[in-house]
Design a protein that fits this description.
This protein has 107 residues and is of the alpha+beta class. Helices cover 50% and strands 12% of the residues. It has five helices and three strands, in the order αββααβαα. Strands 2-1-3 form a three-stranded mixed β-sheet, covered by helices on one side. Helix 2 crosses helix 3. The longest helix has 15 residues. The chain starts with 8 loop residues before the first helix and ends with a helix. 13% of the residues are buried.
């Protein structure tokens, strides 16, 4: 026999979203570098939640280190929109091409 305990989806989603948004107020502990030389600060937890690959990389660092990951993107706006998408589930822009770039970065 199997028993199941499940939180209401709305309750769980709301709490998770609130936690991610609160995280954005904390001191960044990860640097994302663009090929164009820009630096975007973010949080290890945010990227690790959505990427097992990034999580494995970040596990090798100590808490006193601030790792930097270089990504093959030209503009910091691509990374900023990715962070917005991961932390809030939404990213807005006037340029639809910019959102396609976010999808490529996420892959």
């Amino acid at each position: 026999m199997t028993f199941r305990l499940e939180a209401k989806t709305h309750f769980h989603s709301t709490n998770l979203l609130t936690s991610l948004q609160t995280l954005s107020n904390d001191q960044p502990d990860l640097l994302l570098l663009t090929a164009g030389g820009a630096c975007v600060q973010t949080h290890q937890l945010l990227l690790a939640m959505f990427s097992p690959f990034v999580n494995n990389i970040l596990e090798s660092f100590t808490t006193s280190e601030t790792p930097a990951i270089s990504l093959p993107v030209q503009e910091s706006s691509e990374l900023i929109n990715l962070i917005k998408l991961l932390s809030s589930g939404k990213a807005y822009t006037q340029d639809s091409g910019a959102l396609r770039k976010v999808v490529r970065v996420a892959d």
